[in-house]
Amino acid sequence: MTDKAYSITAGELAELSEGQLPDPLVSSRHLIYNSPAALAYNSPGAQGFGVKRAGLAVPGSVMLLVSPGCCGRNTTVLSQTGGYGKRFFYYLLDETDIVTGRHLKMIPQAVCRIVEALSEKPSMVMICLTCVDALLGTDMEVVCRQAQEQAGLPVRPCYMYALTREGKKPPMVHVRESIYSLLEPAPRRNSRTVNILGHFAPLTDDCELYDVLHSFGITCINEISRMKSYDQYLGMSRANFNLVLNAEALPAAEDLSRRLGIPYIFMKRMYRPEKMDKQYRLLAGALGQTVSLQEEKEAAAAAAADFRDRHADIRIAVGEACNANAFELSLALLEAGLCVTEIFANISREDFFYIRQIAAICPQTRIYSNLEPTMLYYDCSDRPADLTIGKDAAYYHPRAAHLAWNEDIQPFGFSGIRRFYESCQAALAQGGRA
Amino acid sequence: MKGLRLYLAPFAPDQAGAAAVLCELGGLVVIVDAGGCAGNICGFDEPRWFSRRSAVFSAGLRDMDAILGRDDRLIAKICDASAKLKKNFIALIGTPVPAVIGTDYRALCRILTSKTGLPAFYVDTDGTRLYDDGASRTWLALTRTFARQGKKAEDRVGVLGASPMDFGNIDMQAALKEQSARMGGARLLPYGMGAGFEDVLQMACVRENLVIAPSGLAAARFLQKEFAIPYKACCVPELIPGLEQILRECKKRSVRNILIVHQQLLAGSLREQLRRFLPPGTVIRTGTFFKMDRDCMESGDLKISSEEEWIHVLAEGGWDLLIGDKLLFDVPAGDIPFLPLPHFAVSGGI
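Predict the joint structure of the above. Result:
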């Protein structure tokens, strides 16, 4: 028995190799604790974009969720309060459906009924499947083709297979492929058009990436979330290249490269100005251009310095339920001269790169997994925080100032870094700690 | 098409009903799923989850666990957690994945008890049924596992069926105060919603049981059969949300044909209250999407099994007032006035 939550310091962790992670930090080796801090992991759709909401990224589309009732339950919130009122429909499987597979014959008819019930014909119907059909081995491509013929509009599958979460193609990777699967090879490509892939909401309007692309002669920057119509969406197939800003969109970019011949470039969101600068230079180099973002870089660095000068002594807890990699963000904060006492995150192999650098600056930073069973006993009085970043960290430190930093609209680049520190400042001011 | 929902989102599923019963009982509750079910249950269907810590876990099943039937891994994970956490029992709650692969819960529970020394039981929910079915199975499993013959305490009355699914996140003990007075000052024990695991262990020692939702009936009947404890099925009026306002509104509107839609016992109790207020001859029917117990129904009461049927009931019933959760009326069936009667299992926290 224990009455303490498991944790390990960055220093201790850095001495291990990637393959030596202690069991409590490997989610497949223990039960998954289900606390509000783990909600983003257990039910990605509960906050932000899960498969269902992401699957509706295509303008004018609607979704038919084919599943037992339990899988669609939290969609009630999206339907009622998320602005998705008449875009979700359900085919609720019963035991007979599951045993006999009779629902597969009903889907084309269900799609027709949905189209009839809507005052405006949808652009397409996305059929969302869950673990049941994963286990039954349903060939939904065939069913979708039948539905498409009968209903007279595009019908595509998307897969909410939680069982494959840690596999090669987890649901949030798969859905990104699904939403771009309707793009067909364009007769002619436009050398001044680029698609930004990765997110389901746009970048902040003040993101310098737009100016950078314009300075390269790009006149049309496509983001699916800014598309007003289905035809506009189809126009994405004319892009000269795809710019991928989230690794979960890489397989989708690969698919577009293979099918449509559109090459792609990958950039990571980073909170360290030097690294961001390097990425912009690499982007420019790949496109045969040059770029100078000295002013933006200095503004980002100044925002970090200003925050540090005002709050050098605060203790910060960083979670993973935010628009950042918790380890990269923690490293950025530490490099800026701030104090990160705790990190709450699931560790991937790639994170070791950051953990070793964190350990070099602040070996006593403690790392927890939101998913580990002993988090039931987490006690914030052991290690109080003044500022939390991410909804999960806020759960553990209810009395700290909180920055959720998880808005749909995505921060990126130098403007993202500047906004981040300004938001930290605002959060502390709101919490009476400025 | 029975399964198609064009207007109504799915109601709370059986596994959420099961988890709601166990939330306050101090057990190690394992949702045997890949993660999404546990997230849905806690994030949407359990209002208490945000304000109190409860040991609800996901088994974290992955595709290879399902394909290869790696129950040994699940057992190891549960044993590991039970060694670290001090809990009263282990409960396995089923979901679609174990239902499809045919997990042998009984064997798992036997092994878990033998390895951990903790009582273990299961609820074979599968996500296709509704919350009250899961809650009913869980009450019954709890009763079968823990109820033992003992000395009757004449001042104790068990309350079966209490769950936020039916009554929202209310203070159940406070809401039952008047009922306690009506029952001669008896100590009312709403299991799972105020009365904890120690009281569950004494389930067979109460004078009688009060069943406030159909999900409690199976357990009450079991206790009657095995321990000769009588029960009464009746939802307490203080548990009807907005009762005073509903009564006032009904009187004001001079209505003649009313349909109340909720869980059967709450709807029936509201009907009794309305009958005292409204002129004789007013037709008041109850309807439910959930369990309809034959012994508790009146002729003309409606069991609704699909959205299609619900639209038909609304369109053809000639109702001049509907009373039920507001989300139920978001269907195209004429412009019938309605009074809201929240049902958490329908609209959740919305």
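Residues 264 and 297 of chain B are 8 Å apart (CA to CA).
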